[in-house]
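Dock magnesium ion; give full complex structure.
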Amino acid sequence: MNKRNLSNFYKAVLTVIGVVCIGWALFYLPKPAYSSGYLFLLAFAVLISPHLSLILPRSKFSVSFSDALIFIAFLVYGGEAAIIAASLEMLANCYFIKRKGNMVFGRYMILTNTFIASISTAITYFVWLQVANLADIQIVSPDTRQLIASLGILALTHFVVSTFLGAVFQILKENTLNLWETWKKDYFLSSMTQIVGAGLAGLIYKLINYGDVFTAGIALIAIGIIYLNYRQSIGEINDAVGNFEKAERDKSEVERVRRREAENHSAQLTVSLEKEERANDALRKSEKDFQHAALHDSLTGLANRKQLGDILRSLIEEYKQDPSANFQVLFLDIRRFKDINDSLGHSIGDKVLVIAAKRFVRMLSPADTVARIGGDEFAIVLRDLATVGKAQKVARRIYQSITQPFSLSGNKISIDVNIGVAPCDVEYETPEDILRDADIAMHYAKEKNDGLAVFTKELRSRFLERVRYEMDLRHAIDRGELSMHYQPIVSLIEGRLIGFEALLRWHHSEFGMIPPNKFIPIAEQSGLIQPITVWILRETTRQLAAWQRISSEYENLMVSVNISGKHLSNDDLIEDVETALEQSKLSPDTLKLEITESSAMENAEHTINMLHKLKQVGVRLSIDDFGTGYSSLSYLHRLPFDTLKIDRSFVSRVGENGENSEILQTIISLAKNLKMRVIAEGIETHVQLAVLQNLGCDYGQGYLLAKPKSRDETEKLLYKRPNLLPFGSGLGFESPEAAHVEENLPVF
Ligand code: C2E
Ligand code: MG
Ligand code: MG
């Protein structure tokens, strides 16, 4: 049974017993009770007594006249009358308290209290009957001791029974088993009311029965005054207690509000602390990111130039202290990376760089460092390698790994690198020093097309010389240091001067004559070749136009100008040529452009395109140094060249007895089949000339015929009008094949 059911059950039991008690009391109500006195007492109990009751401060009890009334009813009208009076008084008192709002009653509680009052009074009566019988106590006796005994028994019994029943009810309601504690805490205090009530009843009883009216009056006035005083004090105490309790409540409310505010505040503080912590975290992270970004390359995640510099600086210091702490620096440059970017797009280019970076990292030990220091430039610091030889081995391994082809977005890509190695040296002071030398070695590797080169001091002086040349070449035109030499080109059949090859000369103010093989590559790499060629075109076309005017037999004199592959790849060439022709008024078909086989084949499709445009301008075209450039035959027949110039190396191979002429024969036949005229360059001996004449080579150029000459010397030659074939040559060597083809071919 749960606590609610239990308390309901208890209420039901009390109701039944209470009803029985009240019924029994009504049934056996003694005769004297049927009187106006008893009615007055009941009326007093119902109407007046509740108004006189006082709630004791901090208790559930009220001091009323109920106990006194019950005991008086008991003494005057008997136990049954007391039961009725007690029940009615309790009922009236409860309603009165409820109406005033001093206490809240639960369901059926007023009735339950009423029945408790009836039961406890009935039990009191029953106990008193037994005790009075045993102790022979008379209830109606003038003996005050007997009266005190009677009232004592009544008060004690009533107190015990009523409080017991109340306490039982409370423990059932509150679901506690501690009856004693409950009674002591909530019910013991009410013993006072019993004692006061019993005393009052005894006093009133004595006054009514044995006192005179005057004494009774004085006593009642005294009681009234005491009561009023008591009531006032109780009221004041109650007010004070009420005020105190209110103040306490207010205080605790204020505290509660404060506590809540404090809690809110601390919650807000926690939130703002958390926010601050998060902001700090973000700050720390961004600081870290910032530091990382400052030292790393964003694309590949490798160290950047700054970090590489820091590492190299400390390694240089370390090496100075301890020469055994050696290291090597590799400088790597991806060959023709620009082509990948241009042809496949920058995003593929980026992916290629990332793949290259990964491959580099994979090949190295954790102590080594890989850095990206430029677009397609990387540097590697190798540690703890005793010799340069070992560094070279590592570099070779890296080279082999990096050149493995891979596929990317459906494209098969293979990359190639140039690697320069610079070993540590005490002379290095800064990271830039060692990186510069590794870079020099890398450039040398690029030049000799070998993939790998180790730095030497010679390379540095070469490099410095190169830098110097490049600087000086920029001002060479303005300073008048450049000039043209002209090498005659001769008809091998009749010895007639056909034209010249214009060859550039640089007379350096400090170093004297610098050969073209030295400065032309520098001009090409630095991009200076284009403005220089523009100058050459202007110079030579102007010059040739002047020479053509010397005599009518020179009207068709030609000049060949060498065009660099770099210039050929640039569309500006067309305009440059047109401008030169316009300014010089030279007939376009007397200007020939020489393009080496290797640069023509570098980007054959583009060359075909460019050559066709040049043909539209009207100029002639010649393929230079033929035989050295690995021509693809399929392209060769699509290239609109007019002449083919056999490379000097094939001519120089022809020995004293005319041996080693097979390749010459092959090239000449090929040229004829492709409907091109053939020029042989580098003819130095009579045998070479004779072999070439015999094979049907159309034209020749070489020291045997004429060396390249300055402008003035060339002009003198033109006025002399010599036959440039050495005496006796051509006789007996004339090729019937050559004579036959001659008719069908265009003039030189
Ligand atoms: P190239 O176009 O094949 O020029 C022919 C070279 O052979 C010239 O050398 C010429 O002096 C040399 N030569 C001619 N006959 C003989 C001979 O019998 N024996 C030997 N050993 N050499 C002979 P040069 O003037 O030193 O020019 C070298 C190269 O420099 C040229 O080869 C050409 O590729 C380049 N070059 C010269 N001038 C120019 C120019 O104005 N523009 C460009 N782009 N390149 C030029
Ligand atoms: Mg040439
Ligand atoms: Mg040549």
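Observed: The chain has four domains: 3-210, 217-284, 293-455, 469-744.
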